[in-house]
Amino acid sequence: MKQTKKPFILGLGGTTNPASSTEQALAIALQSAADAGAETELFGSDRLLALPHYQSDPAGLGDTGKELVELVRRADGLLIASPGYHGTVSGLVKNAIDYIEETARDERVYLDGVPIGLIVTAYGWQAVGSTLAALRSIVHSLRGWPTPLGVGINASGGIFNDGICADAGVNEQLKLAAQQVMQRAETR
């Protein structure tokens, strides 16, 4: 059964720098989802930095943590982007993902059946591959559905500038990841 409302796609990720290649890649993918008819929201660097360290105590979530949990609950699909730091997901992004634990007792437990597009940027292919594998594992453990395409970007060449990616192939992959999330979100 198709949805009659616009799907809501949450973009989660980035670094401490809003101009990072990770956040720029995420914004490009989110824009592709918006262009395809989604309502989108970016939960990026500013809000990631405002999140307290996750603790399983609702009193310790803070306003930003509560906001993130509500966005996750509302999401029909997610795009998650992380830099590859030392071969794995950054602590900043992992902390945000840990907040999904607050949905453990919801009707839709965690990300059950939710399509998740994954994006990784790093300054080397080894970190790209291992970080993408780690994100896939995390999404599976949260019962999410990682899209067939995971976008791995070696950003060492400085291909992002002012929200624009100079590599046509990477742009196409970011668009495809968003399309895969949208296709699945529209059929939920």
UniProtKB/TrEMBL annotation:
Q: What SUPFAM superfamilies does the record tag this protein with? A: Flavoproteins
Protein species of origin: Parasphingorhabdus flavimaris
- List the protein's name: NAD(P)H-dependent oxidoreductase
Q: Which residues form the NADPH-dependent FMN reductase-like domain?
A: 9-149
